Amino acid sequence: MTGQELQQLLLDKWGRSYDIRLRRTPARIFVQIMWRYLEQASFPLDETEYRAHLAELARYLDGMGATAQVREAIRQTRRRPRVGRAVSIPIELGERASEWLVEPDSPS
Predict the structure, then answer these.
(1) Degrees to nearest 5, angle at CA 59 with 56 and 60
(2) DSSP tag of 81
(3) Alpha carbon 99 to its chain's center
(4) Which of 14, 17, 62, 92 could in theory staple to 38 by disulfide, Cβ–Cβ 3.0 to 4.6 A?
(5) pTM of this prediction?
(6) Percent of the chain at pLDDT above 70?
(7) Tens of pLDDT along 31-79?
(8) What's residue 93's pLDDT?
(9) What CATH superfamily classification does 3-94 receive?
(10) Where are the domains of the chain?
(11) Integer Cα distance of 73 and 67 in angstroms
(12) Given CA atoms 37, 43, 47, 50 in this order, what sign does their dihedral have?
């Protein structure tokens, strides 16, 4: 998946180019579709910066093997981003989880 394909997926689903973030917790990684979007006057990125951000995010998703999960989750969800509430998509990393998640150090 490319950043442009990711943006088109958002436009097809919700009609807006929403901001997307990766959020890592100790046990999982989530893709969060935020409530701010490129077409807003107050959006902090210009179009070039936004596209670069999505391209980088798409590379991470490809590296994790999560593009199909994200694509399907966006298509299937009934939720939509709204002020103060992102749409969170948990990423199932399976056997590769140790590559992306750092386990806390055990106390000495």
Answers:
(1) 90
(2) -
(3) 18
(4) 17
(5) 0.82
(6) 86
(7) 999 999 999 999 999 999 999 999 999 999 998 889 999 999 999 999 9
(8) 78
(9) Protein of unknown function DUF3067 (3.30.428.40)
(10) 3-94
(11) 10
(12) negative
Contact 2, 71 (CB under 8 A): no
- Spatial contact of 11 and 3, defined as CB atoms under 8 Å apart: no
Tell me the Cα Rg of the chain: 15
Nearest 10 degrees: CA dihedral of 8, 12, 18, 22? Answer: -70
Total length of the chain: 108
């935020």: which residue's tokens? Answer: 34
Higher pLDDT, 96 or 63: 63
For 87, the enclosing helix (H) or strand (E) is strand 87-91
Kindly tell me if the per-residue pLDDT of 80 is higher than 70: yes
- pLDDT band of residue 108 (cuts 50, 70, 90) is very low
Number of neighbouring beta carbons within 10 Å of residue 99: 10
Block residue for tokens 């100790």: 26
Q: Within a 13 Å sphere around the CA of 8, how many CA atoms are in the beta-carbon half? A: 5
